[in-house]
Every structure is written in C-alpha cells, then in structure tokens.
Amino acid sequence: MLYIRFVFFVLLLSISFQDFALGQEPAPQETSGRSTVDFGLEGMLGVSVGPDFYAMNVGGPSLFLNINPDWKVGVGALPSLYLYEGKMGARLGVAPRVDYRKLAFFAPFFHMDSQDRWVWSIGVGYKFH
After folding, report:
1. Which H/E stretch holds residue 14?
2. What element of type H or E holds 123?
3. How far apart are CA 6 and CA 95, in angstroms?
4. What's the whole-number average pLDDT of the chain?
5. Residue bearing the bigger pLDDT, 89 or 59
6. Which of 65, 78, 87, 94 could disulfide-link to 57, CB 3.0 to 4.6 Å?
7. Do the beta carbons of residue 42 and residue 128 sit within 8 Å?
8. Three-class SS of residue 100?
9. With contact defined as beta carbons under 8 Å apart, do 73 and 98 qualify?
C-alpha cells in the first residue's frame, strides 16, 4: 500500500511541476549564428511487403541526414514481426529510409538463417514524436 501512495505522490508532484512550468515564459536566448545539435526520441510504425513476405515494422536505431525540416535520408534497423512462406517470426531488418514529414518510406532486407538468403521488401510507415 505504501508503494501505491508513493507512486501517486510522484505523479501528482510531476503534474504540479508541469503546470508551474507551463505558466512561465521562457527567457529570450541569444543566438550566435552557430547551428545547434538537437537530440530527441521518435518512433515509427509501418508495414512492408515483398515476394511472399509481409512484415510489421517499428523504427529502431537510425542514422539520418536532415536535408530540411521536411526531408530526412538515412539508414536504420527495423525490428519486425514477419510472415514468410506461411511461417511467422521476428527479425531485425536493415533498411535505407527516406522520411517526409510524418511518413517514412523504407526498403528493409532480412537475413533468413535457415535458408541462408536475404529477403527484401518495400514499406511505408507513420512517424510519431
């Protein structure tokens, strides 16, 4: 019971700090003309289709080149649940990827150990932040 009270207290405290922070105006910051590095978390959920291959993909670690605020080009890993030749499984795919706003277009390749071959597919996904 003490654990539940502690969790409730922490949630209540975090909500009150968020309300306090929302009421504050940010102080103006000087810009020196240098570009800044921006880190953040983003996710992606997508589907891909290949020859007798269907997969549901989630966005894994990726490396991107930001062309402008709307376009990104890169490569990444795609943890996936797949259906291949009537068998289900989970694999990590490697894919080139092009992102446009909230859409991701990718072409993942999956290595099938039992047959020692690569299976390709083409997919589209939705990005969320």
Report:
1. helix 2-22
2. strand 122-128
3. 44
4. 82
5. 89
6. 78
7. yes
8. strand
9. yes
Q: What is the pTM of this model?
A: 0.66
For 11, list phi and psi in degrees, rounded to 5. -65, -45
SS (H, E, C) 30-94: CCCCCCCCCCCCCEEEEEEEECCEEEEEECCCEEEEECCCCEEEEEEEEEEEEEECCEEEEEEEE
Q: Report pLDDT for 17.
A: 47
C-alpha 93/C-alpha 55 separation (Å) is 10
Q: For residue 119, how many other CB atoms are within 10 A of its CB?
A: 20
Looking at residue 26, its pLDDT comes to: 58
Q: How many CB atoms lie within 10 A of CB 109?
A: 14
Average pLDDT over residues 99-109: 95
**Is the predicted pLDDT of residue 8 greater than 60, yes or no?**
no
CB 127 within 8 A of CB 97: no
- Residue 3 vs residues 7, 17, 30, 115: alpha-carbon distances, Å: 6, 21, 45, 50
Distance between CA atoms of residues 119 and 115, nearest Å: 10
> Of residues 120 and 37, which shows the higher confidence score?
120
